[in-house]
Amino acid sequence: MDNKYHMNGGDDLKSYAKNSEYQKQLLGYSKKVMNELIQQQLDVGLNPHFDHCNPFRIADFGCSTGRNTYLAAQNIIEAVEQKYKSNEEDPQVPEFLVFFNDLVQNDFNTLFNYIHSNKPNYFGAGVPGSFHGRVFPKAFLHIAHSSMALLYLSRIPEEVKDRNSAAWNKGRIHYSCSGAAKEVEAAYSTQFRKDIEAFLDARAEELIPGGLMVIITLGILDGVLPSECSMGVNFSILGSCLEDMAKMGIISEEKLDSFNLPYYYTSHMELETLIKAHGCFDIARFEKLPTPFRQVVHDIQTVVLSIRAVTEGLFEEHFGKDVIEELFQRYAEKVGSHPVLYDDKYRTEASYFVFLKRKTDTSKPGT
Amino acid sequence: MDNKYHMNGGDDLKSYAKNSEYQKQLLGYSKKVMNELIQQQLDVGLNPHFDHCNPFRIADFGCSTGRNTYLAAQNIIEAVEQKYKSNEEDPQVPEFLVFFNDLVQNDFNTLFNYIHSNKPNYFGAGVPGSFHGRVFPKAFLHIAHSSMALLYLSRIPEEVKDRNSAAWNKGRIHYSCSGAAKEVEAAYSTQFRKDIEAFLDARAEELIPGGLMVIITLGILDGVLPSECSMGVNFSILGSCLEDMAKMGIISEEKLDSFNLPYYYTSHMELETLIKAHGCFDIARFEKLPTPFRQVVHDIQTVVLSIRAVTEGLFEEHFGKDVIEELFQRYAEKVGSHPVLYDDKYRTEASYFVFLKRKTDTSKPGT
């Protein structure tokens, strides 16, 4: 795996911890529907894996430094407790063990401090490692959860950095940047397919038969052009700032050409097709969540900080620490006068809520 | 819990990671005897908790940043695999899940990087929290392990810091310092008893009936005076350096009087008595390990760094960052001319290896 990126650690103004309000709102929207689905789908009293299990095991994949993960775990536990208590024949509630997974480079120290300071009513553990591979034993987890993590690709497709390929993304930093060839998007899409397959393969092994999985991810509406979404506009602006800096000799052109952001914004149709093709999970629900409230023009700083919390590590690793302040200053200046900040026509990204159930036939279809 | 101390993080010259050779040697000595005992005591084929368990769950309590913990986990897994393979009726080996526990202030980022870089053949997880309380669900662990961690008290007994108490330890930093009243040692001993009881209470709940626990701890030989051990001499010297600094006004006398090191060096007799009185564990083995090779005069720096790796955080928290370099420079000067570095008469500390088995009657006797 090439992926080494992670959110900004710590908890200062530039940290992911302080800049993940958007993600927090999404969890709020999903709480009610998740609870309903857990009541419907969790086979307490029907599946021996759930009866007298001790402890009930939950894992969050891509936890970062924990604020939203903590909330998500609380929401899941609340729903599971309710389900157990409603089983009249045996209303006993198990103990809970919650695993927080992210890449080994994630700031687990900050995560643990945060979780600990909240005195959770469950046992907690951190699990470092890429969720594109196995990080848990077989048939070990009862519920898996992943919020805003699957849009991170495990690697940048090679073709995008290859000057001899039709997918070479010269002078741009993402497939959504204005003017990018359609082959660039296709290369990203292929990588996303491989990543989703690897993710589902691993979770299919780790979840018990009948285990549940909640996925929340950021994508775009079906049929929308990536370059016309707000993220496409933002990445185009960030890219143009880097182009300006390359022209001034602050960074080299080669550096710019070899850099691409590892995000992929899937559509409802694409993700649903991939999950169905995989075959190990039944889709109990697939829906678009309401769009979170976003700060507008009067608070450009918040917009800049939230983009910075997620991307800074990537820019820093590739271009070096010295250019970061200048890059985000230039970005703040350019984005401040752009209609993307207030015009709804750019708001074509979509947050998807997906609720899956591990089929009880534990062999993978077609293998 | 008051305990917030932890080993020096990171992996530079002053880190615990680079200064734990002594502990590593102890694990080497214990490997053979531990393997023998696991073959004897692990009830594979006899206890349903071990049959087709998935995964086999091991926890290390007080893992610090991981070098020795990693070795210990390898040794345990090797022995358990051997035991499973020797079960002719069902030689299948389970997957392993190893939990690394330490205080929430421990440097888990360094731990995870180290474990990850060694590509272990097991699943790993970090569990933050004091091992003087519950950190795992009930009847969850198959084997618990703790090396060189139980000598850290959860808190300094109040009397030791109380000027109206006979146990007030004025001008000294430990009960082993030359001239300390016997009431000081008694107060430490009482705290140690409470801590061991809390540790055994928690592990008795977390281990399955028939689960095993390996404890390695540093103590002293039965009947030896603490002030005549090498650690007593070392702490007396460190204390006298602080006294010198108090006289020069570099630190205040009040600061010195309110500082005490939270270590307790138990004896064979004391620890065995406490475990028996607790009642939840059978003692399968209690023995003194060979004394690790120690660096002598020609390498004072190693001695200083190894004491510093363990104590620096405590001194820094109480006296502030500014005095640390001076304190250890003064210590290096004084200890360099002291016979403790080469005279065997001071080597009366002892490392104890204790192998316990959770009784299958899971209620605590007398409760």
From TrEMBL, chains A, B:
GO terms for biological process: methylation. Transmembrane segments: none annotated. GO terms for molecular function: metal ion binding; S-adenosylmethionine-dependent methyltransferase activity. It comes from the Eukaryota. Keywords: Magnesium, Metal-binding, Methyltransferase, Transferase. Belongs to the methyltransferase superfamily. Type-7 methyltransferase family. PANTHER family: S-ADENOSYL-L-METHIONINE:CARBOXYL METHYLTRANSFERASE FAMILY PROTEIN. This is Loganic acid O-methyltransferase-like isoform X1.
